């Protein structure tokens, strides 16, 4: 198979982890005789430094011309603590999501048995958990009009949804539920928000077309609680952009660490694959970051964008073996981990490659 | 002390649990020679059924005329599944918050040692956790303009904050931090939202006036994660209405159950005290609800509105003893609980009264 892949390393630990995602792509290409070509582009803080623009036109053009995108992370503490900054790294990420029509963000919560003890939740609460989040990604308060009054004393963001936006992602979520556990939980705040009432209406209507899927509606506050209390009860979770941002980060603790979670953003065109963790500037450049989320992002790319299931499984199996043999990065190590098997980013990437080679 | 207390039982399990809150007030009044008088009023679904209005004028007048309000819960599944309903029980609660100027919602996450095992989090993660949430309660997307397009295909809610709204609650949170662990974590989404950028600006400015308080800013997604990962790191958490709704429900799992958490809403006038749990219609009228959150709401009322610290402590001590002796309602029972000590609402209320008496 011939594919052209754009790598956007981004900020902080982004470059360190995508290096290993790319290395795994190269290994898979060699083993299975695929012809993967690569390009690289700037986004985020690094792009602002180089061009003044968090998403340079060149990056967007390269993105549109590629078959899939492997992304690292964006963000920098410099902007976080300066609420008045006009240009921000995150604008690059939000703009590329919008421009590529990446309206569906899939975040699978995978549970590696070996990591049950790394979570702050009890193993018996976790065991058997298998959730696939569908987070809407191009609407909501993220993209609604933002205003600041002239005296700067009033600020607002418009939380807004159109019927077609809810419909298209809900369809994808229902279809996924059909081939999984046949359960869908739609999360909103319909007891307070008009946009949530539209959301619920649309999901209720669509549900009739999927009678084989058991559909439930839950308020976001309750969902945030149930996710800790009894994560096993969820199968497919469908929710809006902001609620999805919050719930999936919370759910990362089910998998033991953010360092283990990958996400796929799909929609009208090129698919976009990234870890759910952020740029983590506090550990950047220190060989501490966990490269597994980037490697798992590559597995998602192979499966979802290229339909290469066997290759994807080869990757998750290699990670499984790495963990079974006791290797850990710092974020997923616990008191019982053999100190000699706590690896840095580089050594962990190499380990996975070794297991891939068999 | 002479005080006039309005009881608003509301919907679902509201009446069952407030009965015991009130019984505890009466017991305390008798023991300490206070003269507490009571009135009762309608709100929520029951008020809609009786008057067509979720917050009848009479209730609002009685509320304004009282020294403190003990509230149960509002909500009904009937409206939840009907996104087009114009009149809803929750409107009563939102309106009374606004009308009474209850802008600060205090939600202490108390940890009873005896309940460490009832949580889905590991005891070693929980032990030592002591968080006081300050949730803003009269602004945000809850009260911003709601719109539905004529074709009903577009819906929006305005997320909006004014400087003075952030200032007044932030001050209360900083003051609380000064007499607690001297740490304040302000939660927002300033990397995306303009209203959060205003929020962060105001908190940053105010922080200068409280140099003895260590101030931190955290994004809501990260906060939702850290709360599960390492709840001990938080002392005072300050956040907006929507984010606070989500985070405090999530945090209820730290305390083992929603059935254990009380909240105080304060501001310009009369204080308002309620469990953080909802109306739970699925168990209403079955003598299953946990009355402890309502009883703890009464303890908060005595301490915060009336300054009666000793009386408040007497109540939490009585609950402590009840739990130490092994008594549990279903929601906080676990595999190790003596079956004979799993009590219904009524028996649990009686037990607390017994321990209060001596
Ligand atoms: C960086 C930020 C804008 C982004 C978001 O909120 O969507 C991130 O948290 C994510 O979840 O991808
Ligand atoms: C009932 C609902 C409107 C309310 C809210 O969202 O504020 C409740 O969840 C709460 O937390 O008090």
UniProtKB/TrEMBL annotation, chains A, B:
Keywords: Amino-acid biosynthesis, Branched-chain amino acid biosynthesis, Cytoplasm, Leucine biosynthesis, Magnesium, Manganese, Metal-binding, NAD, Oxidoreductase. It is found in: Cytoplasm. It catalyses: (2R,3S)-3-isopropylmalate + NAD(+) = 4-methyl-2-oxopentanoate + CO2 + NADH. GO terms for molecular function: 3-isopropylmalate dehydrogenase activity. Mg(2+) binds at residues 221, 245, 249. Catalyzes the oxidation of 3-carboxy-2-hydroxy-4-methylpentanoate (3-isopropylmalate) to 3-carboxy-4-methyl-2-oxopentanoate. The product decarboxylates to 4-methyl-2 oxopentanoate. This is 3-isopropylmalate dehydrogenase. It comes from Mucilaginibacter jinjuensis. The lineage of its organism: Bacteria, Pseudomonadati, Bacteroidota, Sphingobacteriia, Sphingobacteriales. The gene is leuB.
